[in-house]
Design a protein that fits this description.
about 200 residues, alpha+beta, two-stranded antiparallel ribbon, 6 strands, globular, binds iron/sulfur cluster
Length: about 200
């Protein structure tokens, strides 16, 4: 994926060669360990609507997941400087949407040859993985199963493997924050998000 393709509409479904090799070798970031569904990333209303429009999905694809302590703790690890905001976006006792998975933990949009969704319709978290932003710096998750991580080892080499630019990561991360109801950057004042964009 090129840096520009992270910023511009990209209707293709084909993944980077390194991700195709990863998929051929075994489970990828599109599968979770059964039992860990509650800490899966959320899907906002805006992301859900985009997936439904792109996929022609009538039913299925998403499930309601309770805003448990484990989920909020996981969100706190992703957004350590936004911890105070998180319970307002994901109130304890409420729920949020996440991608549905099969009994083996595979995302329901996963086919044998990869994700069936056009890349620009995938959830922001999927498009960003394995990259993240921490304190303004582009970082990568410690994901031992990720071939990009195993082959690249450093963030700059991982970015190069995916032909991804830091600017693209920053842009996508900002869009993810907005979609999930957070201010676009850490430290900015919280404004209650529009229900059309974000619905807990
Ligand atoms: S939506 Fe696509 S990219 Fe995201 S987890 Fe599911 S199969 Fe993978
Ligand atoms: S991002 Fe990493 S885990 Fe996901 S398909 Fe690519 S190499 Fe595999």
């Amino acid at each position: 994926m090129s840096a520009d393709s992270a910023l511009l509409p990209d209707a293709s479904t084909s993944d980077a060669p390194v991700c195709a090799r990863c998929a051929a070798a075994g489970p990828t970031c599109c599968s979770l360990t059964p039992g860990l569904e509650e800490v899966c990333f959320p899907v906002s209303e805006m992301e859900r609507a985009r997936i439904v429009e792109a996929d022609g999905l009538a039913v299925g694809g998403f499930v309601h997941q309770a805003n448990t302590e484990a989920f909020l703790a996981q969100m706190g690890r992703l957004f350590p400087r936004d911890r105070k905001i998180l319970p307002r976006l994901f109130p304890p006792g409420g729920d949020h949407l996440r991608l549905a998975v099969d009994p083996k933990g595979n995302c329901v949009f996963l086919r044998a040859d990869g994700c069936r969704l056009p890349r620009d319709a995938r959830p922001y978290y999927c498009r960003l993985f394995p990259f993240w932003l921490n304190g303004g710096a582009v970082t990568a998750f410690a994901a031992p199963g990720c071939l990009v991580h195993r082959q690249g080892r450093t963030v700059s080499r991982m970015l190069a493997l995916l032909e991804y630019g830091e600017a693209g990561v920053r842009e996508l991360h900002g869009r993810l924050r907005l979609a999930w109801g957070l201010p676009p950057k850490e430290g900015m004042p919280f404004v209650t998000p529009s229900p059309a964009r974000y619905r807990p």
